[in-house]
């Protein structure tokens, strides 16, 4: 029996692929080779790559059983089922259920082994937002929050398995809510109930959860005084122009984001900020693009995840006046170049400092601020260890370091 996972898209997909691989192996698929393709629908390119991968997998191994799941196949199951070699399309809501893989319910109670040093822990699913460019709600459904009674045992099991760092993930973790608890209270509860967690990190979050006046107070408290809560926030920003944000139907504006960044930096000056940014959104004139460029430069966000706008059929944005694809690509390149300049300036502040880092390989990993570093090949550490390093230089967008 052989189970191969081919995963596209977000951290949540990666986490769910771990669960599917674990369940598929437990399900004793001994008589056939199985290839599971976990698709993404955020961009047309992600869908194209997944289709291409399926065709290539069937061509190279025509006897293999190909199973397709994920957000792209959720939106067009029949089209994916018609691809060569595909024997089954599994809905997103069923892909991590033990019964889908011929197992009893109790088989899904314990977390699967994680292939990642920073263990992913899903706390939320789906999205209730209605952004004009996004099809994720069609692939993931409405927002649901896992109860603490399910989250705490999984976090404890991951810590006991040796994971020093846990990353809370989901489609929109900022919307996590259980009775009178919000995301910040969940984080505090996790750290209190599972003291073995050395480091806790969040995946991408909606900026509205941290607006200075109305944001999650418990989350602000963690940023201010909890050393186990990592000084790294990745914002689902999308644009730095208020008019474009309004046309995207985002809930925040640039003043909200500038305020939260200023407040976080006041509490933890070296916090590493990341942001998702769409270049060339419909109706984005040169002037509106410049607003985004100037906002990102002013806010000095070091870790930008930039991608050109990709039409998603059926969304309101797909009916708006589109920018030429060449313009989208050129603007994305300009934002990436800006991001590299800001990143290098951010990294240089750490030269000469010592940091406790999580080794993701014998010579590489990330600082608490999520800055990538590398050790000399002649001075390796051990994968999974919390190591003390000294930053010596910046080279090619990465920190150079040594063990003191």
UniProtKB/TrEMBL annotation:
<protein>
    <submittedName>
        <fullName>MiaB/RimO family radical SAM methylthiotransferase</fullName>
        <ecNumber>2.8.4.-</ecNumber>
    </submittedName>
</protein>
<dbReference type="GO" id="GO:0016740">
    <property type="term" value="F:transferase activity"/>
</dbReference>
<dbReference type="InterPro" id="IPR005839">
    <property type="entry name" value="Methylthiotransferase"/>
</dbReference>
<dbReference type="InterPro" id="IPR023404">
    <property type="entry name" value="rSAM_horseshoe"/>
</dbReference>
<dbReference type="InterPro" id="IPR013848">
    <property type="entry name" value="Methylthiotransferase_N"/>
</dbReference>
<dbReference type="InterPro" id="IPR020612">
    <property type="entry name" value="Methylthiotransferase_CS"/>
</dbReference>
<keyword id="KW-0408">Iron</keyword>
<feature type="domain" description="Radical SAM core">
    <location>
        <begin position="113"/>
        <end position="345"/>
    </location>
</feature>
<keyword id="KW-0004">4Fe-4S</keyword>
<keyword id="KW-0479">Metal-binding</keyword>
<dbReference type="InterPro" id="IPR058240">
    <property type="entry name" value="rSAM_sf"/>
</dbReference>
<keyword id="KW-0411">Iron-sulfur</keyword>
<keyword id="KW-0949">S-adenosyl-L-methionine</keyword>
<dbReference type="InterPro" id="IPR006638">
    <property type="entry name" value="Elp3/MiaA/NifB-like_rSAM"/>
</dbReference>
<dbReference type="Pfam" id="PF04055">
    <property type="entry name" value="Radical_SAM"/>
</dbReference>
<dbReference type="Pfam" id="PF00919">
    <property type="entry name" value="UPF0004"/>
</dbReference>
<keyword id="KW-0808">Transferase</keyword>
<dbReference type="InterPro" id="IPR007197">
    <property type="entry name" value="rSAM"/>
</dbReference>
<feature type="domain" description="MTTase N-terminal">
    <location>
        <begin position="1"/>
        <end position="106"/>
    </location>
</feature>
<dbReference type="InterPro" id="IPR038135">
    <property type="entry name" value="Methylthiotransferase_N_sf"/>
</dbReference>
């Amino acid at each position: 029996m052989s189970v191969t996972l081919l995963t596209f898209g977000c951290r949540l997909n990666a986490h769910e692929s771990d669960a599917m691989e674990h369940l598929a192996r437990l399900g004793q698929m001994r008589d056939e080779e199985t290839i599971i393709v976990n698709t993404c629908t955020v961009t047309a390119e992600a869908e194209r790559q997944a289709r291409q991968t399926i065709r290539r997998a069937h061509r190279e191994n025509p006897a293999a059983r190909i199973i397709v799941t994920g957000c792209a196949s959720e939106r067009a199951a029949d089209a994916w089922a018609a691809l060569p070699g595909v024997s089954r399309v599994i809905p997103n809501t069923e892909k991590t259920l033990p019964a889908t893989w011929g197992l009893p319910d109790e088989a899904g109670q314990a977390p699967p082994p994680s292939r990642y040093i920073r263990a992913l822990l899903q706390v939320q699913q789906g999205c209730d937002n209605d952004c004009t460019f996004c099809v994720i709600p069609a692939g993931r459904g409405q927002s649901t929050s896992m109860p603490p009674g399910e989250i705490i045992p999984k976090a404890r099991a991951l810590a006991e398995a040796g994971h020093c760092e846990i990353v809370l993930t989901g489609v929109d973790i900022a919307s996590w809510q259980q009775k009178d608890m919000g995301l910040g209270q969940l984080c505090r509860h996790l750290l209190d109930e599972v003291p073995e967690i050395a480091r806790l990190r969040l995946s991408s979050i909606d900026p509205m959860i941290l607006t200075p006046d109305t944001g999650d107070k418990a989350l602000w408290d963690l940023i201010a005084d909890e050393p186990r809560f990592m000084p790294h926030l990745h914002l689902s920003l999308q644009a730095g122009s208020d008019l474009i944000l309004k046309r995207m139907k985002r809930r925040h504006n640039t003043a909200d984001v500038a305020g939260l960044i200023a407040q976080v930096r006041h509490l933890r000056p070296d916090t590493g900020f990341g942001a998702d940014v769409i270049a060339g959104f419909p109706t984005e004139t040169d002037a509106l693009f410049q607003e985004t460029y100037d906002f990102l430069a002013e806010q000095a966000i070091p870790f930008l995840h930039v991608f050109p706008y990709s039409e998603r059929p059926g969304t309101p944005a797909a009916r708006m006046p589109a920018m030429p694809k060449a313009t989208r690509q050129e603007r994305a390149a300009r934002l990436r170049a800006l991001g590299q300049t800001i990143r290098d300036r951010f990294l240089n502040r750490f030269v000469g400092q010592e940091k406790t880092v999580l080794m993701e390989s014998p010579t590489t990993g990330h600082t608490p601020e999520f800055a990538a570093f590398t050790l000399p090949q002649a001075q390796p550490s051990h994968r999974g260890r919390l190591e003390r390093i000294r930053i010596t230089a910046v080279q090619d967008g990465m920190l150079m370091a040594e063990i003191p």
